[in-house]
Amino acid sequence: MQADVDRLLMEAQRARFTERRTEPRHAFARPVHIHIGREPGMLSFSKDMSKRGIGVITSHELSAGTIAVLKIHSTTGRPVHLKCELRWSDPYGPDWYLTGWKFISAAAAPST
Q1: With a threshold of 0.90, does the pTM exceed it?
Q2: Which pLDDT tens digit goes with each residue over 10-58?
Q3: Are 24 and 55 in contact (CB under 8 A)?
Q4: Nearest to 36, CA basis, from 7, 6, 70
Q5: Most CB atoms within 10 A, among 33, 44, 48, 70?
Q6: Domain-by-domain residue ranges, the chain?
Q7: Are 86 and 96 in contact (CB under 8 A)?
Q8: Phi, psi for residue 60 in degrees, rounded to 5
Q9: Distances, alpha carbon 59 to alpha carbons 34, 83, 96, in Å
């Protein structure tokens, strides 16, 4: 068991050392609904966030360049709605994807 835990911790360390971002990211685990066009929102979860963007784990494969409104849960008030562009998407395990979103602007709440 300990060898498996050590391997997972090494994976996390390796990811930290290969980071190329200039903006610091902060751990940020929250529910996120991704609204694309008039489609119903898909529930996902954030992983981390910076002043310029957010990493989101989703069970849907999405294409870079996709524009969406992300409804991000807030623990101190109403959810925050941000218009974002999907910059990249990488497989993150069977049927899971880690996606990187760039903030574009504040957005109105999507109609449901």
Answers
A1: no
A2: 876 766 555 566 678 889 999 999 999 988 889 999 999 999 999 999 9
A3: no
A4: 70
A5: 70
A6: 25-106
A7: no
A8: -115, 135
A9: 11, 20, 5
